[in-house]
Amino acid sequence: MQGLQQFFTNLSQFFEFLVVYYSIILGFCALISVLVLGIIMFLRKTVLADRVFAKAASWGLLILCLFCGKLKLIFETKAGWYTLGRWNLLCAHRIVSIIYIVGIFIFATYFIYRRRRLNKFVKGLDKATTCGFDNEIRKYPGTISPFCIGCIHPIIVIPEKLDVQNALIVIKHEETHIKLGQLWIIAGYDMVRCLLWPNVFLHIAAKYIKRDLEDVCDAVTMQMNGIDPFDYGESLLANAREIMLSRKNMKCEEGFLFAWDDNYKALNKRIHRILERNGYNRKVVLAGGVLFIMALIASILGIKCFSYKRNNPLDISGIYSMTKMDTVVQDTEEKVVTGYDGDYIYIDGEALKEAYPDAEIEEQPLFVFVGGYYKIPGVGGGGGWGEFSASDVKDGVFRIENHDDIDVWNWMIMWL
Question: How is the chain split into domains, by residue range?
Fold first, then answer.
């Protein structure tokens, strides 16, 4: 019974550690993502405004934020500490950490629910008899903006009364979304929104990443299928007109809506880009994409080099007084605690008396703690400990038994 109680105690402490640790590093990522998102929005409005592929690729910079939670500069520079490091102090209050982690689960549940609700709605529609396409097509009995959903099993939905010419353009457009992996990109963006949910700007910016991906899809669809820009723009306007008249959106936020946007101005810009479109060099775009991915990987490796490792040795020893209820010796240079191994801790008696003259008159045992690990400063554990009394203190080096606290729970934490 006592063993079972100890197990649940250890399990509770383990999850408490995870909640605090991940709320700290993800909180840092969320704070950094505010700056990165600002850079993305600035670039897409200025130097990348007319560069369709580069503008869409710039959203990949958000990937870097997920690796920035353990950057050393947050803790080891004044600028990092005063701008970001205070979050670490907030997470010392368990309620803050719990709120952060619970928020992740709430957002994840919300996104999953919306996707499953839309998927259930689509599965209830009749299959279209249209042949010659790579993906399953279903038809909606009414007016709706064509869209596609489903990362693993993609489905395209079109209105039942869509004429043949427009249907061809629409289906090609939605198939391009699927072939470019843009449904996966949106799913990944939603995952980032879950993990970094306190950054409200990520939720606001969701419509902008969809606009940029739509621009890419428009360009690729027209060039790969030889569609005339005027025919393409006319099809887009025809669908938009129908949607405006019916005022139906069906809450299909999880997919790409062919002719629905949040305002007329955005749709107008999209039409102008379609009509003014110049062909792109496929090899140049592919080369640019490869270089961008290589730059992202190099940046991630660079961030890892300047971040704390999974576990870092804690090169510090100390002596705790039960009489004074305080740490009376902090030893970072191995002057007092000269070393330790799996069995013993070695203490220099003369250095101890110099650092803490009352060591020889302490009425209660003195406790020694050595080693251990930390994942980020202030978050760690493990190590060894021992105890000795005033009568054990002698000139020269004496040893005491080392009790190693590294157990299976600590090994799991160190591995995470």
Answer: 2-305, 312-415
Q: What is the pLDDT of residues 172-207, one digit of tens each?
A: 999 999 999 999 999 999 999 999 999 999 999 999
How many residues would you count in the chain? 416
Q: How far is CA 205 from the centre of its chain?
A: 16
Give the DSSP letter string of 226-260: T--HHHHHHHHHHHHHHHHHHT--TT-TTSEETT-
- Residue identified by tokens 């090609």 is 172
Average pLDDT, the chain: 85
361, with CB counted inside 10 A (0-12, 13-18, 19+), is: exposed
Three-state secondary structure call for residue 335 = coil
Alpha-helical (H) ranges within 58-181 are: 62-65, 72-76, 78-80, 86-90, 94-123, 164-179
- Give the pLDDT mean for 276-286: 87
Contact 65, 196 (CB under 8 A): yes
pLDDT band at residue 127, thresholds of 50, 70 and 90? Answer: confident
Give whole-number Cα distances, 314 to 28, 73, 201, 210, 341, in Å: 22, 19, 38, 46, 15
Task: Please tell me the pTM assigned to this model.
Answer: 0.82
CA–CA gap between residue 152 and residue 138 (Å, rounded):
16
Q: For residue 294, what pLDDT is reported?
A: 96
Say whether pLDDT at 257 is over 60.
Answer: no
DSSP character string of 184-201: HHHHHHHHHHHHTTT-HH
- Residue among 124, 122, 131, 126 at smallest CA distance from 154: 122
Q: Which of 276, 242, 219 is nearest to 144 (CA)?
A: 242
Structure confidence by residue, pLDDT tens digits, 78-101: 888 888 877 887 877 789 999 999
Other C-beta atoms within 10 Å of 105: how many?
A: 10
For the purposes of burial, counting CB atoms within 10 Å of the CB of 55, is it exposed (0-12), middle (13-18) or buried (19 or more)? buried
